[in-house]
Specification:
The complex is a heterodimer.
Chain A (H helix, E strand, L loop, with lengths): L2 E6 L2 E3 L20 E3 L1 H16 L3 E8 L5 H10 L3 E5 L9 H15 L3 E5 L10 H9 L3 E11 L2 E7 L3 E8 L2 E5 L11 H7 L4 E4 L12 H4 L2 E8 L7 E4 L4 H11 L4
Parallel strand pairs in A: 1-4, 1-6, 4-5, 5-11, 6-10, 7-10
Antiparallel strand pairs in A: 2-3, 7-8, 8-9
Helix pairs in contact in A: 2-5, 3-4
Chain B lengths: L2 E5 L2 E2 L2 E2 L1 H13 L1 E7 L3 H10 L4 E5 L3 H4 L3 H14 L3 E5 L2 H14 L3 E9 L6 E6 L4 E7 L5 E4 L14 E4 L11 E8 L13 E5 L9 H11 L2 E4 L1 H5 L20 E5 L5 H7 L4 E6 L12 E4 L2 H16 L1
Parallel strand pairs in B: 1-4, 1-6, 4-5, 5-11, 6-10, 7-10, 13-14, 13-15, 15-16, 16-17
Antiparallel strand pairs in B: 2-3, 7-8, 8-9
Helix pairs in contact in B: 4-5, 6-9
The chains are: A alpha/beta, B alpha/beta.
Protein name (chain B): Electron transfer flavoprotein subunit alpha/FixB family protein
Keywords (chain B): Electron transport, FAD, Flavoprotein, Transport
Organism (chain B): Streptomyces mobaraensis
């Protein structure tokens, strides 16, 4: 029996670029290059490692986003995922995390799954709640924020490094997993992988394929609203001194002046 | 006055500071009702009452510790149904955000995470968030259902406000999913005796320039002289010099202390995303071109192996 793995990935604006808001207070995507979210590369990597350990596994990489988001799918396919699903619909513009989790849940069910693997958070919104929302919607266990993950005998196990403790977790499949940047370096696509990715199937779906009404998603379907966005005033230039033997003492003087000492 | 649910983060009844900050913010929008799950409700109730909780709803069950997240969502949902609050506030820890998200979905309320400020508005609470590596500040509100909002540590100074803090038992029925993810074992983190990184008023972080795990005691000594927490950049963590739990940045912890000292950290965007909202920023770096200097209130261009020990000694001397 084949292990069906779905990896949810996001196409995000490059964080090293200059990110801005568009007039409708959504992220301006025309202004900055996009790429596969770095944190999702770890999810693809862990899916590949789980598949290597399984006798028979198939990895589908899934994204919701505009046309360009196909780039994120291609990257995951070139790393070794087998096929891809792209949910694309004009009505999705401005969808919040609640709507995104709805679309992903429906798409995951459409594909069929035993295991869903996500990154710990997107590198743009950075909320880190999507895996929990997806598990809630699918009605399956969440095994989130794992630095180590393994699948065996119909169970997923993993290590979660929390603030107060390290926990070993265990859940029966099907389940939703999220992995952290500590789970293991993501591989680079090989030339062979890049060439092979061009031939791998990418299925396109729209909202009607998933039985989702337009008013459940998009800016109007969002459960929250951004009323204003203001660029943070640039910090006033600070004092910078060169250490000529007294740098530590000068800094202590500054800290004392600020009442930190 | 409308009631506002506040989820209590605690260790066996010792309430953590971010919860007291939430109570302060909750009083701007209504009367705080605290939800305490697990042991220690009596001790916690005293502190919660002193900070404005009119009521403390409590439930204790083995499920809270033995299974991940969902039992706490079941309990918070029971509290929501018992109180019918104007908003639900949860501390922005990793677990807090997961609890908040699942609750929001269940009750059909919009979710805002990582608020850094909160005020009452004509159409419900207005949350301030810091986005795009803190280069923008946004104001948002929930437009559907009861707002569920998670708030970052250090977003408000806890204020004393004596209230009844009456303890009431909450009746919780666990759903089928509550026992889905078993916590097979739990190893508590060894206490360093230093303040919690995300809660600390002062954070001293080391980066690539620290040049090895064996040199991190220099950073620790400076932190200790100031009573602060120790952080590390991703480069230092990836090199194995310091634990990942201390990583400050986009994929680590986001901190917003009164004072942030970056030693040997260049200030890549990933790091800045996690510390840029710090009130006062200080950097020590050999490279005068390091982007961190664009952010600082005070910067020293110099060798951290010279500057940091001298600074530590000087602080100790001044503190006598």
């Amino acid at each position: 029996m084949s292990l069906r793995i779905v990896v949810c990935v996001k196409y995000v604006p490059d964080a090293t670029g200059d990110r801005h808001f568009a007039e409708d207070l959504t992220v301006d995507r025309d202004d900055v290059d996009g790429l596969l979210s770095e944190l999702d590369e770890y999810a693809v990597e862990q899916a590949l490692q789980i598949a290597d350990e399984a006798d028979d596994a198939e990895i589908t990489v899934l994204t919701v986003g505009p046309e360009d988001a196909k780039d994120a799918l291609r990257k995951a396919l070139s790393m070794g995922a087998h096929k891809a699903v792209h949910v694309e619909d004009d009505d999705l513009h401005g969808t919040d995390v609640m709507g995104t989790s709805l679309v992903l849940a429906k798409a995951v069910e459409h594909v069929g799954y035993d295991l869903v693997v996500c990154g710990m958070a997107s590198t743009d919104g950075g909320m880190g709640v999507l895996p929990a929302l997806l598990a809630e919607r699918l009605g399956v266990p969440q095994v989130s924020l794992l630095s180590q993950v393994a699948v065996e005998d119909g169970k997923v196990t993993g290590r979660r490094d929390g603030d107060a403790a390290t926990e070993q977790l265990e859940a029966a499949l099907p389940a939703v997993v999220s992995v952290t940047d500590q789970s293991g370096e993501a591989r680079y696509p090989s030339f062979k992988g890049i060439m092979a990715a061009k031939k791998k199937p990418v299925e396109s779906l729209d909202l009607s394929d998933l039985g989702i009404e337009a008013d459940e998603v998009g800016l109007d379907g969002a459960w929250t609203k951004v009323d204003s966005a203001a660029e943070r005033p640039a910090r006033t230039a600070g004092t910078i001194v060169k250490d000529e033997g007294e740098g530590g003492k000068q800094l202590a003087e500054f800290l004392a002046g600020q009442k930190f000492v | 006055m409308a009631e506002v649910l506040v989820y209590v983060d605690h260790v066996d009844g010792a309430v953590r500071k971010p919860t007291l900050e939430l109570l302060t913010l909750a009083r701007r929008i209504g009367e705080p009702v605290a939800v305490h799950l697990g042991a220690g409700a009596e001790e916690a109730a005293k502190v919660l009452g002193e900070h404005g909780a009119v009521k403390v709803l409590t439930a204790d069950a083995a499920e809270f510790a033995d299974y991940l997240v969902v039992p706490k969502v079941d309990a918070l949902q029971a509290a929501y149904e018992a109180v019918n609050p104007a908003a639900v506030l949860v501390p922005s820890s990793a677990e807090g955000k997961e609890i908040a998200a699942r609750l929001a979905l269940r009750i059909g309320g919009g979710l805002i995470t990582d608020a850094v400020d909160l005020e009452a508005g004509d159409e419900g609470p207005v949350a301030t968030q810091s986005v795009f590596a803190a280069s923008y500040s946004t104001k948002s509100r929930v437009t559907k259902g009861t707002p569920v909002i998670t708030v970052k540590p250090n977003s408000a100074a806890p204020e004393a406000a004596p209230a009844a803090g009456t303890v009431e038992q909450l009746s919780v029925t666990f759903g089928e999913l509550a026992t889905g993810t078993k916590v097979v074992s739990r190893t508590p983190r060894e206490s360093t005796g230093r303040p919690e990184l995300t809660e600390a008023a002062i954070v001293v972080s080391g980066g690539r320039g620290v040049n090895g795990a064996e040199n991190f005691p220099l950073i620790e000594a400076l932190a200790d002289s100031l009573g602060g927490a120790v952080g590390a950049s991703r480069a230092a963590v990836d090199a194995g010099w310091y634990p990942h739990t201390n990583q400050v940045g986009q994929t680590g912890k986001s901190v917003s202390p009164q004072l942030y000292i970056a030693a040997g950290i260049s200030g890549a965007i990933q790091h800045r995303a996690g510390m840029q909202t710090s009130k006062t920023i200080v950097a020590i770096n050999k490279d005068e071109e390091a982007p961190i200097f664009e952010l600082v209130d005070y910067g020293v261009v110099g060798d951290l192996f010279e500057v940091v020990p001298q600074l530590t000694d000087e602080i100790k001397a001044r503190k006598g």
